[in-house]
Amino acid sequence: MQFKNIIEDMKRLGFSEYEVKAYMGLLENYPLNGYGLSKASGIPRSRIYEVLGNLEEKQIVFKQVDEDATVYFPLEPKLLVEKLKTELTAIINSVQSYTFDLYDSKKEDRRMISIKGYNEIISFVALLIGQAEKRIALHIWDKEADQVREALLDAVKRGVSIKGIFFGNKAPVETLVYHRRIDRYLIEKRERHISITIDGEQVLSGVISRGAESTVSWIKDPGFVELSEDYISHDVMINAYSNQISGESREVFEKFSDEARRDYFEYSQEEFDLWKFDEK
């Protein structure tokens, strides 16, 4: 990892850039006096004692005063990490306690919230999966499944039931049903969609294939959740059945299914010919 990345990480933990440089300079060269640390770290001499004073207050740096000189020692990294963990945990617990009390959890929130951007959507999906306690139902493509694979596997370890449809060749969990005829699906729909329900309480659904322009909706409305669960369960039944038949039975089923879709969506014959079932 590059030094500039460490600086940015520690800035997120509340340190200034000079404080990071001073601490790292001491780790490499301790003990040092203020002048020596200024030279080693590149911090201006006019600022070095202010920076060291801040680090002393944070108990990250310690001063030893002798008759001849004053030198500084860094807190060893193992203790620094434990100190930061303790402080961050206390902050998170405080925020959690205040915000949970402030938020009326009994109030029904049926707002539909839009989330835009591929990376933002993936991060939010992983967050929702991490919250699941009992059940996840989803429609997901291989590209997106790879992004949230660890979150799904962690959910399985927690005992969360995962059901739904997978578009791809290697599902992240064995309880997902493979969607048949993916090429046909893309010709007809021209987009990748994602849909996920969490514990029967909330649903996220929308188009995921437009990169930064991808947009999904997130809502906790019971009606939307039930509708999404029904849609996913219907797709599971259709694909599970199709995947276990073959030969003439498969041909009859797929042709009937395609005809039904054509009639429902009123596709033209030209549009229908692009994706209809071909036994060849």
Structural commentary:
The longest helix has 26 residues, at 77-102. The protein has 280 residues and is of the alpha+beta class. The mean pLDDT is 86. The chain has 12 helices and 9 strands. The radius of gyration is 28 Å and the shape is elongated. Helix 2 (17-29) crosses helix 3 and helix 3 (34-41) crosses helix 4 (45-57). The strands form 2 sheets. It has a 7-stranded mixed beta sheet with strand order 3-9-8-7-4-5-6, with helices on both faces. A two-stranded antiparallel ribbon has the order 1-2. The protein folds into 2 domains: 3-75, Orthogonal Bundle (Arc Repressor Mutant, subunit A), CATH 1.10.10; 113-244, Endonuclease Chain A (Endonuclease, Chain A), CATH 3.30.870.
CATH superfamily of the largest domain: Endonuclease Chain A
The CATH topology name of the largest domain reads Endonuclease, Chain A
What percentage of amino acids are in beta strands? 15-25%
Number of strands: 9
Radius of gyration: 28 Å
Average pLDDT for all residues: 86
**Contiguous helical run count:** 12
Low-confidence stretches: none
Task: Draw up the topology in text.
Blueprint: H1 3-12, H2 17-29, H3 34-41, H4 45-57, E1 61-65, E2 70-74, H5 77-102, E3 113-116, H6 118-131, E4 135-141, H7 142-147, H8 149-157, E5 161-167, E6 176-178, H9 182-189, E7 193-198, E8 202-207, E9 215-219, H10 222-243, H11 247-265, H12 269-275
Helix pairs in contact: 2-3, 2-4, 3-4, 6-8
